Description:
The chain is of the alpha+beta class. The protein has two helices and six strands; from the N terminus they run E-H-E-E-E-H-E-E. It has helices spanning about 15-20, 55-65, and strands spanning about 5, 35, 45-50, 50-55, 70, 75. The chain has a two-stranded antiparallel ribbon. A two-stranded antiparallel sheet has the order 2-4. It has a two-stranded antiparallel ribbon with strand order 5-6. The model has no long low-confidence stretch (mean pLDDT about 80).
Amino acid sequence: IHGMPTTFNPHNDDTIKDLMAMTAKSLSTTPVWICWMKPDNYNDLPYSSLILAMPDADSAQNAIERHIFWRGKLKCTEVPNPPKARCMNCLRIGHSVASCPHPHLCAYCGNDHLSQFCKERNAMKPKCTPCA
């Protein structure tokens, strides 16, 4: 569900009951769980996206086709795309360690070793080394 106010608390039973009451036609069954798409930074924004895990494919399709309303406003819904595989060896996207043809690349310092063995690990934040 895109455009949900970040004041929505997916861990509060009363909030979930409100969501179910407002969307009775589109959410015919209660979601198995609800969470923010990006849980680390949702509080920094007025609106963000929620993931609703539905108990079966029919319930999910029903919610997408019939739309979701929250406090009188139509919210966009879609099936989230699964993240692409990220190689933990070279940090590139699209393949795994087992099929990696590239040398090691550290996410902290960018040198030729695995990130878990970096001596700079505690002093630096990880960065997108393939892009940097």
